[in-house]
Amino acid sequence: MNETQEQNDLDIFWMQHALELANRAESEGEVPVGAVVVYDEQVIGEGWNRPIIDSDPTAHAEIMALRAAAKKIDNYRLLDTTLYVTLEPCIMCTGAIIHSRVKRVVYGAFDPKAGASESAFTILGTDCLNHKVDVKNGILSAECGQILTDFFRKKRIEKKRGKECD
Question: I need a labelling partner for 47 at 20 to 30 A (CA). Which of 56, 61, 63, 156 fits?
């Protein structure tokens, strides 16, 4: 696929929006991951990690964004949409992406331990399933990775300080 500069600029724009949502997750004490579903250059769904707040292990940013988008268009099929997410989707999220028929996924940071697009697993691009998703990685990867690195560094420091007080 020969990508245009205009498409690349749009990918950066929407990833910046996803990063704002990741910041929202962090402000709520959640792992800072944000996601946005775009159709015809309009946001139809957005989400950020909420498993702790919602006591819901499925409340990943991607799932929240897909749910919001499906509700907005009143259809579980999200044909011709693009999902922007700050971290490579996990196995659960890639399953939801495939079932919802998202056309394209654009993500920032790789997840070498649990990424199911290309890092640990290659689910989105497989020919073995009934729907194949176009994937683009590395958009604002440094920024997307840094927010996660900073978050977990802060958590380790807080944990260490807590042990010193015992």
Answer: 156
Q: pLDDT tens-digit profile of 9-49?
A: 999 999 999 999 999 999 999 999 999 999 999 999 999 99
Nearest one of 74, 63, 50 to 98, comparing CA atoms: 63
Q: Which of 26, 46, 62, 88 is catalytic?
A: 62
Neighbours of 154 (CB within 10 A): 11
Query: Model pTM?
Result: 0.93
Residues, the chain, total? 166
Q: Is residue 46 among the annotated active site residues?
A: no
The token duo for 56 is 């819901």
Give the whole-angstrom CA distance, residue 147 versus residue 141: 10
